[in-house]
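Give me structure tokens for this 149-residue protein.
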Amino acid sequence: MFQEFKKFALRGNVLDMAVGIIIGSAFSTIVNSLVNDIIMPPAGMLLGGMDFENLYLLIKAGESGGPYPSLADAQAAGAITVNYGRFINSLVSFLIVAFVLFLLIRGMNRLQRKKKEETPEPTTQECPYCMTDIPKGAKRCPHCTSQLT
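Here you go.
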């Protein structure tokens, strides 16, 4: 059973998938930093100095009662909150990742199309009898005179 698992784990596509997951998680931290540190502060400033991370809806006040100046204060007091500001940050992160993946796949598709366009259709075929290259539409081989189908 161990040998079977080893064979499965060391297959090429499993290793490729593992590398993709590791790079994806690293990419996730970059996107989160981009959203939280670069995109959201100017967006909050344009919306009147709003900090999206601290947007929440208070469902039940905590031990010390409300109002709470920040989400961290509300959570420290044991309040029950709906953290829609964090959801907005996560949504922006998702949209950025989706757009980057779209651009990546679009670029790969363009490269594949260019590669297909560069590869010309073959104009010759191989005679099955004498193995010589002959014109593609030939009915008879000019070298061995065999009838071709």
